[in-house]
Specification:
4-stranded parallel β-sheet; elongated; two-stranded antiparallel sheet; alpha/beta; about 210 residues; single chain
Length: about 210
């Protein structure tokens, strides 16, 4: 609940300043997704329920750190499984899911290209995010890695595509309800707030609440 409160507060405060801003997060995708997200490390150890963040509308873009070795069959399979799950969550929530592809010491250029090509067109995904510029692949030269960028430019991104519009921000049909609960001038932590529509949430340690 505390982590959800922090993300919700960041989202609301950012959108108060700039309503069209896209709030993103690099989320946890350790191990394999399996058949139940609540059994993953992301949920049970890190307490990061990022599918719910997308569901609640307090995150616009999830970019799971889907960092797996392509040369290890079980990890390659896990990379595809997380990407498929991300696409399913994005489709269900109407938010953006961007799949992570890692170089560094994990993957060489061919491995990176393989993961990009295998997941780019998966249903529901809005795009890919490569990590990282400083070490684009195993054995990368000092940046900029011209060979790397030329390869993905000729084999993956062969034409310019504009960033997709976020319809829930460009043409919003709902708003954000937020406020603070206090008693005797002191913030109330853990107070239940319920709208007439039936939606409900709890206040955080500052008495802050929001429903998006």
């Amino acid at each position: 609940r505390q982590i959800m409160h922090v993300v919700r507060r960041v989202y609301v405060e950012a959108h108060r300043i700039r309503p069209d801003i896209k709030v993103s997060a690099a989320t946890i995708a350790w191990g394999n997704i399996g058949t139940d997200f609540t059994k993953t490390d992301a949920y049970s150890r890190i307490f990061q329920d990022w599918p719910a963040m997308l569901e609640y509308g307090i995150l616009d873009i999830a970019v799971p750190m889907n960092y797996k070795r392509e040369s290890v069959p079980s990890q390659a399979a896990a990379h595809r499984a997380w990407a498929r799950f991300l696409g399913q969550v994005a489709t269900r929530t109407g938010r953006f899911g961007v799949n992570g592809v890692d170089g560094e010491t994990l993957n060489n250029l061919n491995d990176v290209l393989t993961q990009m090509k295998a997941t780019r067109a998966m249903p529901g995904l809005a795009g890919l995010a490569n990590y990282c510029y400083a070490e684009t692949r195993r054995g990368a030269p000092q940046p900029p890695d011209v060979e790397f960028f030329d390869a993905i430019g000729s084999q993956v991104y062969t034409r310019w595509s504009p960033p997709p519009e976020a319809p829930w921000l460009a043409n919003p049909r709902t708003g954000i309800v937020w406020g603070r609960v206090s008693r005797g001038g002191r913030p109330v932590d853990g107070a239940l707030v319920r709208l007439s529509s039936g939606e409900e949430t709890f206040t955080d340690g500052n008495g802050f609440f929001a429903l998006c």
